[in-house]
Amino acid sequence: MDFDLNDEQRQLKDSLERLLAANYGDLNKRLSYMKEPKGYSAALWKQYADLGLLAVPFAEEHGGLGQGLTETMIIAEAFGRALAIEPYFATVVLAGGALRHSGHGAQLNALVPAIVEGKLTLALAHQERQARYDIADTATTARADGKGGFTLEGEKNVVLHGDFADKLIVTARVAGGRTDRSGIGLFLIDGKANGVTRRGYPTQDGMRAADVTLSAVRVGPEAVLATPDKGLAVLERVVDEAIAALAAEAVGGMAALHELTVEYLKTRKQFGVPIGSFQVLQHRAVDMLTAVEQARSMAYFATMMAAEPEPRERRKAISAAKVQIGRSARLVGQEAIQLHGGIGMTMEYKAGHYFKRLTMIDMAFGDADHHLRELARAGGLSTKTSS
User: Does domain 232-386 sit in CATH 1.20.1250.20?
Assistant: First the structure.
């Protein structure tokens, strides 16, 4: 497998890294963006649009660039390194993925141009309080009104960037029991529709989320993105691609945190010499680097396998990647904090911010322990996915 980037991909990587270095090089800028009305930089979001980032995964026929998972990986890794907080993951990867995989031509034609221009943000509202990591566990209901439309009732929790999203893509149960794998539909609703209540809050990693309550929210037939017979399949595909993107973001964050730690070891002095001259600390820095490279390899694997059409094989590969990402993130984060000492925990220094983001990535869509159990239950990686 050739992992070298082509000329266009290298240009994307270089352009984005320059943009992020100029806008996130100083931690104070990130802290100031967090205080803006929507919790991120609206001006920088417009620059993402101008650079074409928001168009990357959408088909050309709908107004996008028609690029693939490798480009998404490049963007996610750069965002992880910079600790970017704009809702790219929520709008383009999660909700945008649901929109793409639903295959709803009319909605794609209507929404993608506005997304690409940076004028429309989306959020995927799927997580519920009782569900833990089971994405099929859906108590929110959608009752048919006999005219092709539905009435939605229920609650969604920790909707990433859901507090200010213009549109919400909601999973709701049309038929079956709460944990049945069939009967789940995907619905597009306006964030300010009657019956929608959103309680926004900051998350530990500097992002934003919201708890969303749906009370007699009525939608027409045009709002049905995925019917109950294929809703869960669409959601699972989206989550697998999202985990691949998070793996790449984690690698960017871990690599930057390792570099930050090594630089600290070179400059912090004790007993009149840099602490990096102590062999035991050098060994710990090498352990960090090894963990980063292990994670990088699995992030590449996840990017490759996220395009696998066979759900079982794809899911096993994604779980394997999530296990390694979680383990590496914990080792790199904990070592970085310990090697920095007290300064690593302060809001004025980047190390703690990286650790918080890496911890949230580990927990998203199932932590390392959860995915290890899932992988064991599925029989481990097969020859097909490990070749």
Answer: no
* Tens-place pLDDT, residues 231-266: 999 999 999 999 999 999 999 999 999 999 999 999
Structural contact between residues 242 and 365, judged by C-beta atoms closer than 8 angstroms: yes
Domain 123-228 has CATH 2.40.110.10: yes
Collapse the DSSP code of 372 into the 3-class scheme (helix H, G, I; strand E, B; otherwise coil) and give the result.
helix
**Tokens 């919400």 sit on residue:** 168
Cα separation, 271 vs 266, in Å, equals 14
Cα of first residue to Cα of last residue in the chain, in angstroms, is 10
Domain ranges in the chain? Answer: 7-120, 123-228, 232-386
Residue-averaged pLDDT of the chain: 95
Where does the pLDDT of residue 2 fall: very low under 50, low under 70, confident under 90, or very high at 90 and above?
Answer: low
Phi, psi of 163 (to 5 degrees): -70, -30
Q: Nearest to residue 223, comparing CAs of 116, 123, 150, 120?
A: 150
pLDDT in tens, 201-215: 999 999 999 999 999
Tokens 């750069």, located at residue: 78
Task: List the one residue out of 308, 285, 181 whose CA is nearest residue 237.
Answer: 308
The total number of residues shown for the chain amounts to 387
Structural domain 7-120, CATH architecture: Orthogonal Bundle (1.10)
